[in-house]
Amino acid sequence: MFRVIVSGLLLIIMICFPDISYSAPDHPEGLSGVVKDENGKSIPRVIVYLPELKTGTDTDSAGAYHLSHLPEGRFKIEFSHIGYKTVVQTVNIQDAHIRRDVTLPLSPVENSAILVTAPYAATAEQTPYAVAAITREEIQFSGATTLTEALTQVPGINQLSTGAGISKPVIRGLHGSRIQTIIEGFRFDNQQWQDEHGLGLSDMGIRGVEVIKGPATLLYGADAMAGVLNLVDEKPAPAGRTVSDLNMKIDANTLGLNTDLGVKGGSETFYWKARLGGDSHADYLDGDNERVPNTRFNGLNLSSGVGFLGKRLVSNLNYHYSFYQFGVVEQNEAEGKKKEEHFEREMEEAYHQVNYHLITTQNTIFAGASRLKIDAGAHFNNRQEQEGPEEQELGNLNMQLNTFALTPRYISPEFWNSELSAGFQATFQDNRNSGSRRIIPDATTRELAAYAYLRHQLNRLVIEEGLRFNQYHIQSEASGMADSIGYMAALEADYHPVTGSAGLLYSLTPGLQLKANFAMGYRAPNLAELTSNGLHEGTLNYEIGDPELRSELNREFDLGLYYHTPRLSIDAAVFRNEFDHYIFLSPTGEHIGDYPVYRFLQSDASLRGGEVSLNWRPASLNRLALRSSFTALVGKQKDGAYLPLMPANRMSHEVTVDTDIWRIFREGFVKLGVVTVFDQTNRTAAERETPGYSLVNLSLGGKFLGRRIYASLAVNNLLGKVYYDHLSRIKPGSFNDPEVGFNNMGRNITFALHIPLGGA
User: Fold this and answer.
1) Can you tell me the distance from the alpha carbon of 222 to that of 192, in angstroms, rounded to the nearest whole number?
2) Residue 112: what pLDDT?
3) Are 363 and 327 in contact (CB under 8 A)?
4) Is residue 757 classed as helix, strand or coil in its secondary structure?
């Protein structure tokens, strides 16, 4: 806590003195140019950014830019401005001075920038696998209560929720340990194997989230069977400037406040950043204005970092701290709601308390045309659970999970229109219990892997392929007394899967692309699946693991057609995901005491589905934008039975009108959307059919006070629909009683602000 206080004071001091500047050297070396529109008019405030070097600037009033102290080599450079097509070019830094003038064409339809998740600097239009991105602005002004809820705007993404604060992303029907989350190149693990334990991340200090849909084990290792969520950190301040900003959100339904304060600056060779924020939410109200007890949550976040840009080395070091508390709805609360005021937000049993420290470093060493990237980090995650009245006799939970990782990677110079990326990954984890209750034993895991990835660029054809060799070791200690309830035997197991991928992208025309991708993934059974022997909090099910479980293997084939023009984009993709040894939890019909027994089982399985999305701005109605999407999914076991926890088919439509609002908001918008979720009848015997629903959402916003402050007002579930989603873990029937449970959130009005404080 002392570290947080000191960092917070430092942040306030820097914001109070925002006009700190750094003198840029007055010499012509480096990269410079002018950015103009199609009519030859200069465009000011264009963001010029080199993601591989983590450096950039913006154009001045004459559209000019200048970057110096750049290392030699070939780099992708990105030019972006609202209302124009983002232009990505390759620049070869070899001479003392390089000039690159750029023309930005008008494009009301947003297009993707350079992806951080790509093994090479590339855009979504240059990669054969399915990838999508959502910006911080879309997250901030969506009216979503959590980061996971905001991600559901991406077709193919859903959320598994336990109230408003606890939610987990679902990618094409898969969640938990089958999705890997990346922060600044580091694998983020916060005990995501447990359904009632949420993602636990905020959108503070990021510029967006990139989503790989499909197995990405080749590059990211175990737990990337469904895909990857990559939280992309915010861009450094333009060289020679210090900028600061304040972000704020107020949620009417949860009486919630979310705010963060940031400052960043630097010179052409050094940059730094710091950000402090937090949020607090009371219990939410459903469509009938009934309070859903113990769905409150609150927390504190801190992030900071420094970086260096030299002729032979680009390096940065980052530190993140987070402390959160999440209320957990239990059966006794479902049977009889507590008589409390809606504003009450003090934590009551049962609740989770999670805090972590995350230290990461990313380094690139330049040796001629070759590069060596070395990423490393340490994550110290502490999870405590204060149990509810039904579980008090079992004691409380206190687990410490420490993760250490090292990932060196070599990127070759271009040869024969090809590039090679080869690397090694080492991840070590240690889980220790210090509480009186244990749901998984003390254990250590180790993952070692080597991989190679090759990319070929042949005119309009891009081919990528790769291979990965893995060694995964898990060892746990015995817990409890043999042959007694709650006993977990010692375990030691090794897994040696081989995975790979192959992808093809062909540009049929300048705006039409065909993508085909085949990828393999793997995941070793987690500790809960192997060793569980006890009550599962919240639902009060008795879960039993199986130490003989085999590792999951999957093979997914994606086929997509993508059509992009300045005013129209249409994306269509289908996929089939075949699983060997899919692990799932199933009721046995037995009871231990009063508690139903569930066991972890395995079966070969298949998931198939598709996504279609459209984004259109008619030329005759330049201020009007239309966006629609449809996603479908079916998951079945080998015997034809449906898989549990599969999201229902989903459709959304959205109309946006760009207009100044009441002469107050400039560059404003008004947006009306309808999200329709269909009936979910494809269910297991232990699940109930879930009725469909439609939600109407309305939002508006823009800039005011001299276009310095950006504000938005979003009303989600405008009509106050009473509904519950199939992936809600507290919906009616979730507590082994069809009459007991809760609806999802009712109408929620969110007011959001982005305020530049200095230097912007």
Assistant:
1) 13
2) 67
3) no
4) strand
Report the Cα–Cα distance between both ends of the chain, in Å, rounded: 31
- Residue that has been written with the tokens 């109407």 in this structure: 696
Q: What pTM was computed for the model?
A: 0.90
Q: Is pLDDT at 17 greater than 50 in this prediction?
A: no
Residues 57 and 97 in one domain: yes
The verdict on 36 and 140 lying in the same domain is no
Query: Which residue has tokens 């911080």?
Result: 136
pLDDT tens digits for range 211-267: 999 998 888 888 889 999 999 888 888 888 899 999 999 999 999 999 999 999 988
Give the H or E element holding residue 713: strand 709-716
Long-range contacts of 49-53 (CB under 8 A, 24+ apart): 49/77, 49/78, 49/80, 49/235, 50/75, 50/76, 50/77, 50/78, 51/76, 51/78, 51/114, 51/116, 51/121, 52/76, 52/121, 52/314, 52/364, 53/309, 53/314, 53/364
CATH number of the domain bearing residue 595: 2.40.170.20
Convert the pLDDT of each residue in 404-414 to its tens digit: 999 999 988 88
In this structure, what DSSP letter does residue 646 have?
A: P
Q: Using CA atoms, how far apart are residues 98 and 72, in angstroms rounded to an integer?
A: 11
Position 485: which residue type? I
- Indicate which CATH number applies to the domain containing 76: 2.60.40.1120
State the residue range of the domain holding 399: 131-235+243-289+302-345+356-758
Judged by DSSP in three states, 746 sits in: coil
- Separation CA 395–CA 11 (nearest Å): 40
Measured CA to CA, the distance from residue 674 to residue 546 in angstroms comes to: 44
